[in-house]
Amino acid sequence: MTRQTPGSAYLYAAARTPFGRWGSALAEVRPDDLAAAALTGVLAKAPDLDPARIGDVVWGNANGAGEDNRNVGRMAVLLAGLPTSVPATTVNRLCGSSLDAAMIASRTVESGDADVVVAGGVESMTRAPWVLPKPSRAFPAGNVTAVSTTLGWRLVNERMPAEWTVSLGEANEMLAERFSISRERQDEFAARSHHLAHAAWEAGFYDDLVVPVPGIDLTRDEGIRPGSTAQKLAGLSPSFRSVAEGGTITAANASPLSDGAAAVLIAGEGVDVGLAPVARIAGRGAHALDPQDFGFAPVEAADQALARAGITWSDVGAVELNEAFAVQSLACVDAWRIDPEIVNTQGGAIAIGHPLGASGARILATLAHRLRESGERWGVAAICIGVGQALAVVLENAGRSS
């Protein structure tokens, strides 16, 4: 294969599975099989591409403790029937894993180390196993406790300051206090997510992005509730603090535990994959701060990505911000001082779901699709990450790049 001259990286195609609710439609599907479905789905969009030309597969996964099998990216390559010569790696940046994978893929293409890279991610939060700490000596006399790996801290190092290891929900209650973001605003934001996601499905927006999981009768994201209203959501009890303690976060204004996988095809400009490019990866950003403030980290990550793309917020016409919690989404949008109507116009994770390792690729693919449909030139995809991090990517519509 002729090596391409290093240059820009482009997103050419994307595919994801429907996202399933915890313990529901996708509960019987292993994460490596979900990953293979997304990988097969994105390559089906480029039928003229010889899979042997794929220089690498970079896959995101936040767990890795069970059927994810440590390197679920390689497992997906094998299960999808790709040539065994196609290499793969798995990266873990928790909720940002698959956006990290896409960023790594874009750098790989830009450097000329590969012409074609597939990136993506997977999570089965349903099938995340319990783990037991391994004793340093055989046959301990006391009891041991199985720890769930579904979400959040586990087997915490006692040297970690207590304020860093609060629950994700408590961290965001602290954010609500810090920025005076009311329960009412959070419920309104959550209801909007459901309405927009339902409308997007009804309008056919996701028809070209979502591929079926073999053997599973699920054609749409399972968690969308089109009848949601702020008034209905107001009746739910807070999940992390009581009403008396000022609790504002509920099961309805936070993203649900979910299962799913997503993938994107990234290649250099002029690389013949049988498709026209959709969007150019124009800027990338990563930011970290105190672990308990993770929900606010996308603010600086996105600002970094914009600076590296050479544009400002005034140029941006579309934003995909992963809705881990309504409160953190609102805090970020407020800080950016952008029109909230350009954010998550096709619904967000509160409605669609948040399978940790897959969400970054989902928002990137949705953003590229939005730019293609709307004709807007610039867009931002951003995601907060537990333990105080965030990532962001700026895309430029390939049809508007000149």
Describe the structure.
The protein has 402 residues and is an alpha+beta fold. It has a domain at 9-127 and 256-396: Thiolase/Chalcone synthase (Peroxisomal Thiolase, Chain A, domain 1, 3-Layer(aba) Sandwich). The protein is 29% helix and 19% strand. The chain has 10 helices and 12 strands. Strands 1, 2, 3, 4, 5, 8, 9, 10, 11 and 12 form a 10-stranded mixed sheet that branches. It has a two-stranded antiparallel ribbon with strand order 6-7. Helix 1 packs across helix 2. It is globular, with a radius of gyration of 20 Å. Mean pLDDT is 96; it is low at 1-5.
CATH top level class name of the domain at 9-127 and 256-396: Alpha Beta
Rg (C-alpha, Å): 20 Å
According to CATH, the homologous superfamily of the domain at 9-127 and 256-396 is Thiolase/Chalcone synthase
For the largest beta-sheet, the strand count, sense and barrel status come to: 10 strands, mixed
Percentage of helical residues?
A: 25-40%
Total strands: 12
Structural class computed from helices and strand pairing = alpha+beta
Order of helices and strands: EEHEHEHEEEHHHEEHEHHHEE
**Which percent band covers the strand fraction?**
15-25%
Mean pLDDT: 96
**Overall body shape:** globular
Low-confidence stretches: 1-5
